[in-house]
TrEMBL record:
<feature type="domain" description="FIST">
    <location>
        <begin position="28"/>
        <end position="226"/>
    </location>
</feature>
<dbReference type="InterPro" id="IPR013702">
    <property type="entry name" value="FIST_domain_N"/>
</dbReference>
<feature type="domain" description="FIST C-domain">
    <location>
        <begin position="227"/>
        <end position="375"/>
    </location>
</feature>
<dbReference type="Pfam" id="PF08495">
    <property type="entry name" value="FIST"/>
</dbReference>
<dbReference type="InterPro" id="IPR019494">
    <property type="entry name" value="FIST_C"/>
</dbReference>
<protein>
    <submittedName>
        <fullName>FIST N-terminal domain-containing protein</fullName>
    </submittedName>
</protein>
<dbReference type="Pfam" id="PF10442">
    <property type="entry name" value="FIST_C"/>
</dbReference>
Length: 394
């Protein structure tokens, strides 16, 4: 397999796709992965791609404000493209599901997988890896449907479609269809080794409580008290910082809420939930994830320097302690938009750490409103403020 990335800041979808194509070899790629900011119409981009890359499997997802790649850090009106070349037949398949108001998310996800496997003539075969991009609000249902469909822990790396200001201006598309609510997936059937990771990188604090009232993504009470009051008190006692009732973005990014998933070598690992804002009259907190009554939530502390180096550490961990024997071909890293917005100009340092960790290797990273992956213990989950990655290597 061979991977090549290309970048365009041209505003016209037609001219941008032409520019992206001009940075690639003349032969047609085997598949394409695209991330683009909300400045582009998904319908117009799809039309340009199908004209210039006819019959090529493609998945595309909107990203928050920009992308990072081996070629640099790119903000503004931008499209990032990864082209994959593989001479083996039936290696890549796309699955896309548009979910309307009256449609069942799990059923639509499974139908999309059915259609993809039939098209690939791979019915009954497990993919070696799935890249998955749902829209916000349906992620838990999507990952549960994937697990239920395959009945096996298929590696999955994913990220929720995003926009610049959490205004619902996200979208996604494949070579077949565009959608503003749904999921798009690429199924990989490759012999090239792919190591995946799902990492939080936050430290648990001494503050924890039980969810005593919740509804969907609204965390209403912790230990019988209004959730936002408990959350603000925890931060004040832990960090000696007074949190206003209307949360400041930097604080809620640095201090997330974690739920323990499992342990490795007596070390707990967590899935994180990012508070968005106070919700309703009950002092509830609206999250980017679902929350259940009876869950134990822990205040988590995200160190700024740790956020900067964490994606690079994720890549290094793939070497399994044998960096001299590690020869990466490419990487797809899904990075939460929260830390990117929190880090501001330090995101450029994050990209430089990634380049040092992976070497002269093509990689592409969007900024998403939620991350999906499989933990080291095999648990599949949707969470926030995470780094989820797929590193292809010899």
């Amino acid at each position: 397999m061979k991977f090549i990335t290309s970048i365009s800041h041209l505003i016209s979808p037609e001219l941008a796709v032409q520019e992206l194509k001009s940075q690639l070899p003349s032969r047609a790629p085997s598949s394409l992965i695209c991330y683009y900011t909300q400045d582009y119409s998904a319908d117009d981009l799809k039309a340009a791609y199908t004209q210039h890359f006819p019959n090529i499997p493609l998945i595309a997802c909107s990203t928050c404000r920009g992308v990072i790649s081996d070629k640099g850090t790119h903000f503004g009106t931008v499209i990032g493209l990864m082209a994959i070349y593989d001479d083996s037949p039936s290696v890549f398949g796309t699955a896309i599901a548009e979910v309307g108001k009256e449609q069942n998310v799990a059923q639509q996800t499974k139908k999309a997988l059915d259609d993809a496997l039939i098209e690939l003539d791979r019915v009954g075969e497990l993919p070696s890896f799935i890249l998955c991009h749902p829209t916000p609000g349906i992620e838990e249902q999507v990952v549960a449907a994937i697990d239920d469909y395959f009945q096996s822990p298929v590696p999955i790396v994913g990220g929720s479609a995003s926009d610049n200001h959490i205004k619902g201006q996200w979208s996604l598309f494949s070579e077949e269809l565009t959608a503003d609510k749904g999921v798009v997936m690429m199924l990989f059937y490759t012999e090239t080794k792919c190591t995946h990771s799902f990492s939080a990188g936050y430290t648990e604090t001494e503050f924890a409580g039980t969810v005593t009232k919740a509804c969907g993504r609204n965390l209403i009470e912790i230990d019988g008290q209004p959730a936002q009051e408990v959350y603000r008190k925890w931060i004040a006692e832990h960090a000696q910082v007074n949190v206003p009732i209307h949360f400041e973005f930097d604080l809620v990014t640095q201090y997330s809420l974690g739920r323990k998933v499992g342990e490795v070598f007596n070390q707990s690992y967590f899935k994180l939930s990012h508070p968005i804002r106070v919700s309703g009259k009950e002092g509830a907190i609206l999250l980017f994830t679902e929350i259940d009554e009876g869950d134990t939530v822990t205040l988590m502390d995200g160190n700024r320097q740790e956020m900067i180096v964490r994606p690079a550490r994720v890549v290094k961990d793939v070497s399994l302690g044998k960096p001299n024997e590690f020869s990466p071909l490419s990487a797809i890293l899904v990075i939460c938009a929260g830390p990117m917005l929190y880090l501001k100009d330090d995101i450029y340092e994050l990209q430089q750490h990634l380049v040092k960790a992976i070497g002269p290797t093509p990689f592409l990273s969007p900024f998403t409103f939620g991350e999906q992956g499989r933990f080291v213990g095999g648990e599949i989950a949707h969470a926030n403020l995470m780094v989820t990655s797929a590193v292809f290597h010899h």
